[in-house]
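Example with several molecule types.
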Amino acid sequence: MDLTAKTGTTEKTATTTSVLESFAHTSDPRLREVLASLTRHLHDFVRDIEPTQAEWERAIDFLTATGHMCDDTRQEFILLSDVLGVSMLVETINDHKAAAATDSTVLGPFHMTESPVRELGANIDLVGGGEPCVISGRVVSVDGTPLPGATLDVWQADDQGFYDVQQPEKQPPGNGRGLFTADAEGRFWFRSCVPSPYPIPTDGPVGSLLEATGRHPYRPAHVHFIVGAEGYSPVTTHIFVAGSDYLESDAVFAVKESLVEEFVEVDSPEEAAELGLANPFRRARFDIVLQPVIA
Amino acid sequence: MDLTAKTGTTEKTATTTSVLESFAHTSDPRLREVLASLTRHLHDFVRDIEPTQAEWERAIDFLTATGHMCDDTRQEFILLSDVLGVSMLVETINDHKAAAATDSTVLGPFHMTESPVRELGANIDLVGGGEPCVISGRVVSVDGTPLPGATLDVWQADDQGFYDVQQPEKQPPGNGRGLFTADAEGRFWFRSCVPSPYPIPTDGPVGSLLEATGRHPYRPAHVHFIVGAEGYSPVTTHIFVAGSDYLESDAVFAVKESLVEEFVEVDSPEEAAELGLANPFRRARFDIVLQPVIA
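Resulting structure tokens for the full complex:
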């Protein structure tokens, strides 16, 4: 008598068939399509790895702990999506832009508070202490036409690698954030400190996953932008600091070569005084190129 | 100029390659295998459905809400696994038993408190009001040998379809639960009420999913068992009440024909008096068949 006979393929696909049938009457056709695909791929995954009951329980516990880690200032499921490359894949799939337009990249988990409206030229580094910099450029159309009145939502970590929401006791709300409006020639400029590479938060389940897999949690230094103008497709992107560590091994797979910009060191007491920055400082100049909405 | 050019296949698989490489140095070979498979199947799913950013955000919100629904008495991720057929699939994959042994089925989300130790014959219906029943049988080996001292962990919903942990204000802890030890001939028996079909909890994200897909949330009436004996593989299973509604459309896909048992109506004042039950009552008789642990 064979006591260890493996369950047959028929039994293992019967459940899949039943689940697919259970979703067959979903009235929303898109939801029906998504759930049918989810069922097929999820069941394929389970049949592929053949988890033990204990492994299945670990997966349930991992997802539960991930959910419990989420609150108003922490989004562990976005982090999980990020470190599994899903956020970047979704981003790539939705990137239908013209070659000339600025590349997009992931939103990330820290765009959770509204950026304060600021005047062009404002310093978004409300704390000080980091290496000062000035970031400037133009928002233009793919044919080079300036886009006056374009909006730029900017957010970045400080020189120690932390966002305001991560250090409410140390950073005032809105530190490193600003909502700017480009001038009549589409120009923008603001002051800040050079951002630092930083680890994504590692004190939750995603951090445990990275540790168990020998992956470092660091992201290369970057400034986030969401840029929009009437009649144009908005772009969600980062500008990465050239020369930063981890450009080749971003923990969330979000680096695109086209988004790496030089933060050039400027040693000019006159210019520094004019800008209201300490000397020396760094300067980054780049344009954001938007494409018209397809009618 | 083609402004709507779709992102190429190369870009869409590049992220997958990067993620697979990032997990390549995981020291635990099983974890490495699971994460590689997860990455491939999850990315295949995403490429298959091509979610918009808004759809991706809805998925993040759904998982977050599912996590927030979990606490000491509610496990929404198990419910999600159940209604997607994953729990039953994992159960089927791990069912390496001999044909003669009792079939297993899913654990379900309500085995979260320890069942109180009870004497054989005890009534696990501490509230009363339902249709009384007596459940009896033997725990035996695949060759028919009785298994004295076998343990039976039993839990069930009441006649209104609720478990004790769902109604702490109405049901005393341990209502519908009992941990029994079979006698010297492997026999067990206890009293209860006939369980009712019931909806899985619908006030969370899983309930919203069922509603959006036109699926009912009901499970056919059943009693849960985990039965073990020294030297034998334990079985986690249900006994379903023959004739119950929803046997053909269990919301969690857990019905196996071999687990459906008659709860026969008995009209005998003498027997009822002897059992300490109201007349008429119902009687279910079945054996639990375990197989030896493979050395």
